[in-house]
Each structure stands twice: as structure tokens, then as C-alpha cells.
Amino acid sequence: MGKWKRSQAYADYIGFILTLNEGVKGKKLTFDYKISEAIEKLVALLNTLDRWIDETPPVDQPSRFGNKAYRTWYAKLDQEAENLVATVVPAHLAAAVPEVAVYLKEAVGNSTRIDYGTGHEAAFAAFLCCLCKIGVLRVDDQVAIVFKVFDRYLEVMRKLQKTYRMEPAGSQGVWGLDDFQFLPFIWGSSQLIDHPHLEPRHFVDEKAVSENHKDYMFLQCILFITEMKTGPFAEHSNQLWNISAVPSWSKVNQGLIRMYKAETTQPGLYWAQEVTGFCRPGPELASVAGRKTPFAAPPVLRLLHLCSFSPAQCLEKFPVIQHFKFGSLLPIHPVTSG
Questions:
Q1: Torsion, CA 55, CA 159, CA 115, CA 146, rounded to 10
Q2: Partners of 167 in the β-ladder
Q3: One Pfam family of this protein, by short name (predicted)?
């Protein structure tokens, strides 16, 4: 995974996460921010996914978890993904649609296992990052990307999880931060930095969560956990319980970023399989935004651990840097080897 960590793709992805982290610092979800046409189109796309859930009710089956109706819902997305993305991407950037659509399909769970986890969440973040890279989303969309688009994405994913009783993908159980999400804890803790009253110790207080969850993404996550799990919080969410003892939100935020970086660079993790699964070469060139640019074929996602290459060999043979050669829009600095 050393090549992945040193790659431009890794720098772009982590830089994207940190740029949004800075953009939402100290702001409530109800903060007054600009909503561009691209943001509105992304929300409409997510609304379509939500409507399809209503149109695809769970089926009766012996197993309590992993309702097979999810596969019917996913099949519709698999068929319509490129059309959905095309409603967001302008016509002159149409060459990027097939590539970007792959990330959307990988962002909603696995149709074989009927599970969802942080690797799928990372695919959605990569989907948004790609839209920034090709210029669909711009610097002044930063707050709306988190507060409008990603927040709506979380609502749809939670509805999927509850409707189809999806299993956690690659969960570390009680020793993991959360069964399904990671990024809303990072951005949510940034929102709470320098809050005049709420401290980390308060997020395990039911009253504090109930009164403030509509303003803060972190507290929304805590509320969802308490709705989905039973028993003492310290037992079913031990990592979060430990975090509640950290003295300030800035330290919580810094610690979560370190955890996330560590999680995204461990070999063999599902997250890495989602974002770096380049197991075959694609067309040599594609015209994007008027430039001749290396443009990889849709990656064979989730199959890195099954292909004939080791993760390091796979990255060496098909460099992930191909996937992000659109020219950086966000203020991200390249990473040099060494």
C-alpha cells in the first residue's frame, strides 16, 4: 500500500476530505450556504434512489437480515447509473460519465452480500471528488457538498440499511468506530470545534443528542446508533465511548483523521479494494474537458483480493494516478516519492 499512499490519487482523496473538513468547521447544518445547480442535481439524484426504495418493499423471507429485495433495488441502479450521472455532468464532460458512474454504483452497498460499510462510503466520497476534479463541483460548493449532498446520502443509506436489514461490511464489531460510517464523524467533529457549550463528553448524553442532532452530523450518527443498537453505549460502541473522554473537539477531529488515514493505508482492507481496485487497463486516452487525458476503464472493484496480483503489484501494474488525471480543482499538493 506504500505506492497508494504516495500516489497523487491518495493525495487528492485525502486532500478532498481535509478541504471539506476545514470548510464545515464551526458551522451548523442549518448554516446559510450557497446551493449551486450541480448540488441541486445531486440531491435530485439521491431523491431518485430514495424513491426507488419506496417502490421496492422488502420481501418475505426466512432470514431476518439481508432482504433480497435490495438486489432488485440495486439492479435498477446498476441499469440507470450512467443516466443518473448524466443528469449531473454537463454534455461537454460526457466522456467522464461511465467512469464516475462506477463510483456511484459502488457507494450503496454490495448486492451479493447485501451489506454496506465504510468502503462504500469512501466510494461516494470518491464520486464527489471526481465531480470536483472535472469541474462539475467547485470550491464554493464545499459546505453544500457536506451539508446538502453528503447529509442526504446518509439519509438514503440509513433508509437502505433499515429497509433491507443490511449487514455491516468488514465491521470490526465493538472495536470499530461504527458499523457503517466514518466520514460524518470527522466532519461532524469539525462542526463542533470551539462550540460554546457542547463538549465531547456530551455526545453520550441522550438529552444533549436529542436537542442538538439536527444541527450536527456527529450527533445524528450517535442518534442513529442508539436507535439501531440496544444495551449500554459503552458496550456496543466502545471506541466512541472512549472518544467521549477526549477534552476537546479539535483533538477528537485530529484523532479521527489519523484513524482514517491509517484505515485507508492498511493492505487488504475493503476500503482499499473499493478505491484502488484497478485490475485491468482501459482505453489509452479519452477527451475530458477538451484535454487528452489518461482515462482508466471502470475498475474491477471489490475484487482486488481475488485477482492474480497482490495489492502492491496491482497498484504498480495499473497506477491509481490514472483515475484522477483531470487536473486538481481543490488546493491539494502533490505527494512525492520517498
A1: 120
A2: 115
A3: PTPA
